[in-house]
């Protein structure tokens, strides 16, 4: 039982998407949460006032979590606003030697493979949900954080609090940066996501704004030097480079939001928990965005930690290390599997050896022919509880 003088049960450090979602989940359990946030970053808004140009691919498990805290950005939208959530109906993956792999929501019996979610819209929705939750108090990170039985660190990859607690974070920096931008196609995207693995680079054009929309989010993993160069180009120069990589006519593409870039890494904290402390989201782990899984993992952390705390024995305090280890065990295993998969794919498609090129393209087309394997992969990507792999 918390003492009478204690104002909060849990202190969450970091008010990104993972920290905010966790705060709302814990408040639903009647826990009193202090959410320590940094002042908003200086705006990186484009010409239309848009901030972060990314759109996240969120899976069915993430959707469930966000809906449970009323933060799924689709609900209750004014009719004049363009939809911030776009279902992905099909995904085409193209290798560099003609190998292709197609995933279809219809064929796999899912309403969508995943949903492309506008990042600023999701952040705004979370902030709104927070305003209606009196058990979450937002505090400036510059103040001394309140003493609580449990502190959860959700400060992202470069967390200072994690370092203060002496929790190591092993970083394997990739030689690539991700360049993201928004484009307008000349024809509707029809809910199709396309991804190219070409000459060691990975490009995705992800549908935004409804089936008949023409907007797409670009995510392009390129060597760091090239990323810097791409950011110096004017709009026509940038479009020429994009068109070359995805073999589309430049005239069918228009740049609507200027490119931004992010360094990429595979990283993981060696310990995710200490007595009274837990890490979640990118503060615990980060991976290459080629499979669009980083935030899905982070929301999975938030959901699992909330579940473990909810199901604890009545006599166990919130910061009990045995309790927190249950969370760590479950989530570390999930991260290891996804982190290794993305790392393996990144390295496989970087090799320019002819034999490896042929094999990987043959592998893509081969997987395309094996229906049970494809549906198992599709199901895994939903983030819902795993079925057994096909035999
Ligand atoms: C190009 C790109 C595309 C991506 N696409 C996808 C995708 O399609 N799908 C997907 O699932 N994931 C995707 N990701 C991954 C996703 O961006 C991250 O996994 C996610 O943002 C992590 O959220 P977080 O809340 O853990 O950390 P962050 O978003 O880093 O938030 C951390 C928060 O903590 C705050 N903070 C930092 N230090 C302190 C402090 N000392 N005190 C208080 N607050 C602090 C920061 O200001 C920030 O608000 C992508 C990543 C990249 C780079």
Q: Can you walk through the features of this model?
A:
Residues 42-48 have low confidence and may be disordered. The protein is of the alpha/beta class and 391 residues long. The protein contains eleven helices and 17 strands. Helix 1 links the parallel strand 1 and strand 2 (33-37). Helix 1 (17-27) packs parallel to helix 4 (119-131) and helix 1 (17-27) runs parallel beside helix 8. The protein has an eight-stranded mixed β-sheet with strand order 6-5-11-12-13-10-14-17, with helices on both faces. Strands 8-2-1-9-16-15 form a six-stranded mixed β-sheet. Strands 3-7-4 form a three-stranded antiparallel β-sheet. Flavin-adenine dinucleotide (FAD) is lined by residues 13-19, 36-38, 54, 56-57, 141, 154-156, 159-161, 178, 180, 219, 262, 281-282, 289, 292-296, 298.
What structural keywords apply?
six-stranded mixed beta sheet; binds flavin-adenine dinucleotide; alpha/beta; 11 helices; eight-stranded mixed beta sheet; 391 residues; 27% strand
Strand content: 25-35%
H/E series: EHEEHEEEHEHEEHEEEEHHEEEEHHHH
Average pLDDT score: 88
What small molecules does the structure contain? flavin-adenine dinucleotide
Number of helical stretches of at least 4 residues: 11
Structural class: alpha/beta
Strand order, sheet with most strands:
6-5-11-12-13-10-14-17
Q: How much is the radius of gyration in Å?
A: 21 Å
The largest sheet, given as strand count, sense and whether it forms a barrel, is:
8 strands, mixed
